[in-house]
Q: What sequence folds into this?
């Protein structure tokens, strides 16, 4: 079934009632749903065959959030080989950041990022976050809805007090 646009976020997937995509098309180009763009043709063919297709695209490079120096997609991979990065994609060990380079890893009830957790109540979250400077907060979302904000306080470094 063809929709107006391909989902580009968890919110778009929620609108369709999807927990996950069958295919995610990753392109370094802007998302333009027009038959002159290869990713649009391939994605629409897959959708026409009943697959749930999402897209991760670059911005339009007009200094807006979501483009170079504003946002990045990250893969939590064992190393920088193509095989390790692909393994991270397949196992959904990916996340996005805005502006700063931030390393994130977490488990929920011992299940690593990308795994599925079935729960009827509270869960144990173990979180590791490393930023290029002080991290002031961590926002926890469940199905793209803000669940909790953890405010962090660290003493300023000597260079911050000059």
A:
């Amino acid at each position: 079934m063809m929709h107006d646009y391909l989902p580009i976020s968890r919110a778009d997937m929620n609108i369709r009632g999807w927990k996950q995509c069958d295919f995610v098309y990753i392109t370094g180009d802007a998302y333009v749903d027009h038959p002159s763009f290869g990713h649009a043709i391939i994605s629409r063919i897959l959708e026409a065959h009943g697959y749930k297709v999402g897209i991760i695209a670059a911005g339009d490079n007009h200094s807006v959030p979501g483009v170079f120096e504003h946002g990045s997609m990250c893969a939590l991979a064992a190393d920088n080989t193509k095989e390790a990065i692909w393994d991270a994609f397949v196992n959904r060990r990916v996340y996005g950041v805005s502006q700063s380079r931030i390393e994130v890893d977490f488990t929920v009830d011992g299940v690593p990022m990308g795994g599925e957790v079935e729960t009827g109540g509270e869960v144990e979250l173990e979180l590791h976050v490393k930023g290029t400077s002080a991290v002031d907060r961590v926002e926890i979302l469940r199905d793209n809805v803000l669940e909790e904000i953890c405010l962090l306080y660290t003493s300023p470094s000597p260079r911050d007090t000059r």
About this structure: The chain is about 15% helix and 30% strand.
